[in-house]
Write a structure and sequence with these properties.
Blueprint lengths: L8 E5 L6 E6 L3 H20 L1 H18 L1 H12 L3 H4 L2 H20 L2 E2 L10 E9 L2 E5 L10 H10 L2 E5 L6 H12 L7 E3 L4 H10 L2 E5 L2 H13 L4 E4 L4 E5 L5 H13 L9 E7 H17 L19 H16 L3 E4 L14 E4 L6 H4 L6 E7 L2 H9 L3 E2 L1 E5 L2 H10 L4 E4 L16 E2 L2 E2 L6 H4 L2 E9 L14 H15 L8
Parallel strand pairs: 5-6, 5-8, 6-7, 8-9, 10-11, 10-16, 11-14, 13-14, 16-17
Antiparallel strand pairs: 1-2, 3-4, 4-20, 9-19, 12-13, 15-18
Helix pairs in contact: 1-8, 2-5, 2-6, 3-7, 5-6, 10-11
The structure holds nicotinamide-adenine-dinucleotide.
Nicotinamide-adenine-dinucleotide (NAD) binds next to helix 8 and helix 9.
Length: about 500
């Protein structure tokens, strides 16, 4: 049921066991307004701390998270149903973000001297400063509850903004734990907070924020943009994908099949950048499919305990499990062949078997719409032209991979329409914090990471400072014949080229 202020609290279930693991109160629209007003009042002091002061606080957060990474992983594991190996990767990622933006923020958004474009502009001192949007609102999904909330909050905080986060109502516990520690264990300034709830809470956050960072489905992303348009609030949207993987003749097939297995099944396929559609050149198709299917059959699915012992965890959200199940059932009814998996796993808990499908048609939902589960489809193609055409024949454009001889694979990669393409590699762009990450087409607007990932939280302010203090400039009033003639000659001299400058 959609949580609203009337439902008062959200009960969180462990998707791997079906057990209740915690609850959080729902924040009403009024609560959101109050939370935003509170941190808005504290933001100027945070901005005034400067890069060094803000970095010191974030370093304390980094150290706390690393010291408590097992405890955080336990919480994430219990609310998402992830396997241990995948629940532990979020805190090191956040530590890396803090180190990166701690070191680079000043270079990316510190005050800059700007070179004048002309002699006229050179008569002034030109500078550019970046000032943060005072309050950044972040709305996040459930598949990586901290990476996709705190991960985006870190550059916003380094920029000097205050941040209000609305985690997914399915997985709010980990983020609430971190904010609780920021306040009560680290003693950090009250410039970052959490509001809990569903669409109602998120909508209130959009209404009160100065910038909205949204990560989630394309369907919700469009609603966020429409709502933000009412107050002309800028947004960045990190949305879904239907990522292709192209395998060319001459590829290292062992690496390609292992990468496809990991990229398609990681986090039970509940990843915006998971591999969904695989296109393989005719000559190597049978060999590749055999290797991939053997790999997927070997994956160990289950709820592991203290030590990492499983590869594939649960499906975090029941409605997504139902959607994936329907996509596979419809595909099979329409002629697709299941090579392994293909159905729900036994309860307790929410499971879908790691699945490989072949004989799929382009118009099937499993080929057109995002599949947020452990399902990959493999399609035989005649050559690279057909592979590129089919890979690009989608409304999404988030990420992609190409496996093959390096030169050819890189050439193909440059023609794929996506925000990032990994060549003979898988999802590695996510770990390269200095590269922008964002979607083309309906996969989003804007970027995280790199200089883009912090500048988006800022407004640029051009500062023009006169070098001379004469009483009256040539271009100012009064307009007289002689002053106008001199101004005209000067502007022609500057703007014209060749002999036209002197006419
Ligand atoms: P979702 O769109 O259902 O929900 C995302 C967030 O939006 C949640 O916090 C939800 O409460 C909130 N929300 C719901 N209705 C809203 C409304 N009307 N206005 C504002 N906010 C609203 O997505 P999900 O199921 O939580 O996550 C899965 C989706 O996220 C997938 O499509 C996946 O591809 C995408 N995703 C994208 C990225 C990326 O970086 N591009 C990363 C992870 C996940």
């Amino acid at each position: 049921m959609e949580p609203t202020a009337a439902t008062e609290s959200i009960t969180v279930m462990n998707p791997a066991t079906g057990e209740e693991v915690g609850s959080v109160p729902v924040d009403s629209a009024g609560d959101v307004a109050a939370a935003v007003a509170r941190i808005r009042a504290n933001q100027p002091e945070w901005e005034a701390l400067g890069f060094k002061g803000r970095r010191e606080w974030l370093n304390k957060l980094r150290d706390w998270m690393l010291d408590n990474s097992d405890r955080i992983a336990d919480t994430l594991k219990s609310e998402t149903g992830k396997v241990r190996a995948e629940a532990t990767i979020e805190t090191p990622y956040l530590a890396d973000q803090i180190n990166y933006y701690g070191a680079k923020a000043e270079k990316f958004i510190g005050e800059q001297k700007i070179r004048p474009n002309s002699l006229l502009a050179a008569t002034r001192k030109l500078r550019l400063q970046y000032r943060p949007y005072p309050v950044v609102g972040l709305i996040s999904p459930w598949n990586f509850p901290l990476v996709l909330s705190m991960g985006d909050a870190i550059p916003a905080l380094m920029a000097g903004a205050a941040v209000v986060m609305k985690p997914s109502e399915i997985t709010p516990l980990g983020l609430n734990e971190i904010i609780d520690a920021w306040r009560n264990e680290i003693g950090g300034p009250d410039v970052i907070t959490v509001v809990n709830g569903g669409a109602e809470t998120a909508t209130a956050l959009i209404d009160h924020s100065d910038f909205v960072g949204f990560t989630g489905s394309d369907v919700t992303g469009k609603k966020v943009m429409a709502r933000a348009a009412e107050t002309l609030t800028p947004v960045s949207l990190e949305l879904g994908g239907k990522d292709p993987l192209i395998v060319l003749e001459g590829a290292n097939l062992e690496r390609a099949a292992n990468a496809a297995t990991w990229g398609g099944m990681l986090n039970s396929g509940q990843m915006c950048i998971s591999v969904e559609r695989i296109y393989v050149e005719d000559a190597i198709y049978d060999d590749f499919v055999e290797r991939l299917t053997a790999n997927v059959k070997e994956l160990r699915q289950g709820a592991d305990g203290e030590v990492a012992a499983c590869d594939i965890g649960a499906m975090t959200m029941l409605s997504q499990l139902e959607k994936v199940e329907k996509q596979v059932e419809d595909a099979v009814a329409d002629g697709a062949t299941v090579l392994t998996g293909g159905k729900r796993g036994e309860g307790p808990g929410q499971w879908f078997e790691p699945t490989v499908l072949v004989d799929c048609k382009p118009e099937m939902s499993v080929m057109e719409d995002e599949t947020f589960g452990p399902v990959v489809t493999v399609t035989r193609v005649a050559d690279e032209e057909e592979a590129i055409h089919l890979a690009n024949d989608t409304r999404y454009g988030l990420c992609a991979s190409v496996f093959g001889p390096r030169g050819r694979a890189e050439r193909v990669a440059r023609r794929v329409e996506a925000g990032a393409v990994n060549v003979n590699d898988m999802i590695f762009n996510m770990l390269a914090a200095s590269l922008p990450m964002g979607g083309w087409k309906e996969s989003g607007i804007g970027y995280r990471n790199g200089e883009y990932g912090i500048r988006k939280y800022c407004r640029s302010e051009a500062i023009v400072s006169a070098r001379t203090l004469i009483g009256r400039e040539l271009l100012w009033f009064p307009y007289t014949e002689s002053r106008h003639a001199i101004a005209n000659k000067l502007t022609r001299l500057i703007g014209g080229r060749g002999t036209r400058r002197f006419r």
